[in-house]
Backbone:
């Protein structure tokens, strides 16, 4: 098996049984986080990143070009859940850290156990709609990653970007159209969310892409704070 670098540092592609897979170097050798395949390549262990379980991997494989780098970043992750995607970010990070916000105590318990094994994950039980409640525990970040499936997705992102995102920092926003409006066409829902990000919060849209091939009626918006 041969590893190929991608344009995201720390993210590799490898062929397994003629299929191309995304992989990250396992920070905790021997441990699979969500049942993903572990591969031994040149004496090192890698974890296969499942695009059906993670919107970042889905966005990469859907051909999005402006995905933010992860290495050396301080990341605020809204809707971290049990840590599927965050575990791969944790593999990639060199000096950075991830503040993982999750409001379900049951789900957070599992993320907490993951954070006990990975020293770059900081679990915070809180509601992403109320950034003022966790502002004492989070400092300025280089990137906000959001995947919360809530009606007010752009507003939640915008408020967090005002509070925590540094100037020049990036955002990755996964948008599920059905959580916002089941009547409007997905394209209209996505346009309205981008309007809110630009006009209400002054964020610059860098890229918009559908990830429908992996997650129905989902899209990803990449933004930059001027
Ligand atoms: C689609 S899942 C996230 C999956 C995760 N991003 C991953 O790739 O591993 C959405 C998560 O967001 C959480 N969530 C939804 N609304 C939230 C809110 N307002 N504040 C914090 N967490 C929220 C849910 O409890 C759920 O765990």
Residues:
């Amino acid at each position: 098996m041969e590893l190929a670098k991608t344009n995201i540092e720390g993210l590799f592609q490898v062929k397994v049984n003629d299929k191309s897979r995304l992989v990250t170097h396992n920070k905790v050798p021997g441990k699979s986080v969500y049942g993903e395949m572990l591969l031994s390549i040149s004496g090192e262990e890698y974890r296969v990143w499942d695009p059906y379980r993670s919107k970042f991997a889905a966005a990469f494989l859907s051909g999005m070009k402006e995905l933010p780098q992860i290495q050396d970043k301080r990341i605020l992750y809204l809707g971290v859940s049990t840590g599927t995607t965050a575990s791969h970010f944790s593999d990639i990070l060199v000096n950075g850290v991830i503040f993982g916000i999750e409001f379900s105590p049951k789900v957070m318990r599992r993320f907490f156990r993951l954070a006990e094994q990975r020293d770059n994950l900081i679990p915070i039980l809180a509601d992403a709609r109320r950034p003022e409640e966790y502002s004492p525990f989070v400092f300025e970040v280089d990137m906000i990653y959001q995947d919360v499936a809530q009606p007010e997705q752009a507003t939640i992102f915008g408020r967090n970007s005002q509070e925590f995102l540094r100037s020049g920092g990036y955002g990755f926003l996964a948008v599920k159209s059905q959580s916002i409006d089941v009547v409007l066409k997905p394209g209209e829902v996505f346009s309205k969310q981008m309007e809110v990000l630009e006009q209400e919060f002054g964020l610059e849209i860098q890229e918009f892409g559908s990830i429908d091939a992996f997650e129905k009626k989902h899209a990803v918006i990449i933004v930059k704070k001027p």
Notes: The first helix runs from residue 55 to 61. The CA atoms of residues 34 and 84 lie 7 Å apart.
